[in-house]
TrEMBL record:
It comes from Acinetobacter terrae. The keyword NADP applies. Keywords: FAD, Flavoprotein, NADP, Oxidoreductase. The lineage of its organism: Bacteria, Pseudomonadati, Pseudomonadota, Gammaproteobacteria, Moraxellales. Pfam families: FMO-like. This is NAD(P)/FAD-dependent oxidoreductase.
Amino acid sequence: MKNQMDFDAVIIGTGFGGLYALKKLRDELKLKVKAFDKADDVGGTWFWNKYPGALSDTETHLYCYSWDKELLQDLEIKTKYVQGPDTLKYLQKVAAKHDLKKDIQFNTAIEAAHFDDENNLWHVRTETGEVYTARFVISALGILSAPNFPRIEGIKDFKGELYHTSRWPENVSFEGKRVGVIGTGSTGVQVITAIAPQVKHLTVLQRSAQYSVPIGNDPMTPEAIAKIKDNYDQIWHDAKNSAFAFGLNESTTPAMSVSEQEREVIFEKAWQTGGGFRFMFETFSDIALSMEANIAAQNFIKKKIREIVKDPKTADLLTPNDLYAKRPLCDSGYYNVFNRDNVTLKDVKNNPIQHINENGVLLEDGEFIELDMLICATGFDAVDGNYLRMDLKGRNGLSIQDHWKDGPSSYLAVTTANFPNMFMVLGPNGPFTNLPPSIETQVEWISDALGYALENDIKTIEAVKEKEQQWSETCQEIADATLFSKSESWIFGANIPGKKNTVYFYLGGLKNYREVLAGSKAGKYVDFKVGYSVKSLEQAAC
Ligand code: FAD
Ligand code: NA7
């Protein structure tokens, strides 16, 4: 077994997380670093999700890094929200400006990473069998990255074009085609709205109806852009010191503290302004906490669906009958799509897909839908999906599959017990927010922790099992106090058959999370188990 070190650190993934980790570790800590990605370019989410309509639901000026102030001033803000291809271009620009690609190996899936207890080294193996050793591993694998392909009998026999939105190829044409879409989550809503005008016929195969509000993706005026750029420091400060980091005025007003009439006015204003997180968290403080408040929000959106959708039967089908407590959706005219003559909605909850054959989809009631193209907008094996797909082994050969057999866990979302010197960006039980500011928070904490370890001759740093358990309990307690935990979605692992339905996020907000991480750093990582090198132990003994 190789016992000399190839790199100080190996980074897996080159989305927002991996790129920043590479920049910090290589340019600030001056480490020898190599990053790998199975994609053939940087961008992560935005490399893979090139489906029509891909759009952020974070406002453009906050869906970027805060650390490169020059790029913030250069940021091209066209509309309130940013199109997928523009985020990809932004990340490519970051990589070019900081010369990051020279230390990235693309088209390289990391198949395995094993910790060697004897030498305190990670052995990282690519799918082509190359093995590299490193002292630290930074996993920036993405939380919405491992595609969830629906397990439907016969799907492999389909002879038409078959796509998953998160593996979207270039140059797909819809003209003259009969297209089916499975899935009506955030992605389904976007792709359906974008392609409806382009296809010959669109059949939407809906299992769960969704609450969605308009996104309000207006063009940005030069004055509005100038105001943002003049106030960026304050904007980032406020975002990082808020719960969701979406740049909202997070409401402190309970919904029932105002009259019904006032509530309607506030909801209507939010509907006109647009934005999913704005609707859920800027209107009232307790939509995700109080059943009464939640029902008020549900009823408002239900009323809008009935107003927009002309056919009452279709409107009924589009109306959810569960809580408004998933990641809040927003759209560019989704419900209106169902007024088009070329769009049909099928309820595959009550009339499930029985099987798929070479020509299309057969529903349980015997109806056969002939298709030229089938799009799976069926989401992701979120949060731990990419970890469980790897042969990842920590101390004494403990596999991540065994370690997380009761559901994934972490200490502070950046480390997990028995996996020394492995640091996760967006590991399980991390903050549920606009993600770039959370990613930055974690990468900065990781970089500080590595810096501390290097300065103090610490050879291993790892989470303590009891602390990890406590963090899971904290996350569970917070989640239990919300309505999110009572709604079935990927946020709690409920979207994947057989997946552990447990807590996957810290719903305590970014501000509080940052304070916890800052406390760990200020306390010189006493909450971690550290292993000193022989040299430093000898020095201490003297
Ligand atoms: P990713 O961007 O997912 O990058 C992970 C990378 O790791 C990928 O490139 C992948 O190829 C690579 N990788 C994984 N496993 C391996 C392996 N074994 N070997 C080699 N490479 C590997 N978040 C928001 O905050 N706001 C939004 O508006 C928003 N919109 C979204 C819209 C869509 C359609 C999706 C799917 C997600 C959205 N997100 C949004 C979440 C988004 O994933 C994050 O904002 C952010 O891009 C995550 O960056 P990351 O670097 O952590 O992970
Ligand atoms: P989601 O939100 O998990 O949505 C997936 C959709 O696919 C949802 O409507 C599912 O219905 C549906 N689905 C999944 N499997 C099936 C099968 N087998 N049959 C029928 N329908 C199915 O994923 P998205 O990609 O839309 O969004 C994930 C996040 O990425 C999003 O929040 C943004 O942050 C970006 P279900 O609801 O399970 O009944």
